[in-house]
Amino acid sequence: MRNYIVHEYFQVDNNVVWDVITNDLPILEQQIKEYLTEEK
């Protein structure tokens, strides 16, 4: 537990989260849709 507190492992960078939501998730969504279409 000490490491989590001392090294702030619980801290989340909201900018990183927003970047993933706006940039990475749409790409992942498209890749999943393409995969599912190919598998049918």
Could you walk me through the main structural features you see in this protein, from its secondary elements to its overall organization?
Keywords: Hydrolase, Nuclease, Toxin-antitoxin system. With about 40 residues, the chain is mainly alpha-helical. Helix content is about 80%, strand content about 0%. The longest helix has 26 residues, at about 15-40. The model has no long low-confidence stretch (mean pLDDT about 85).
What are the defining features of this structure?
40 residues, mainly alpha, single chain, elongated, 2 helices, 0% strand
Q: Which structural category do the helix and sheet elements fall into?
A: mainly alpha
Average pLDDT level: 83
Question: Given the structure, what is the number of helices?
Answer: 2
Order of helices and strands: HH
**Which overall shape is indicated by the principal axes computed on the Cα atoms?**
elongated
Task: Give a short synopsis of this structure.
By secondary structure, this protein is mainly alpha-helical.
What is the fold's blueprint, element by element?
Elements: H1 2-6, H2 14-39
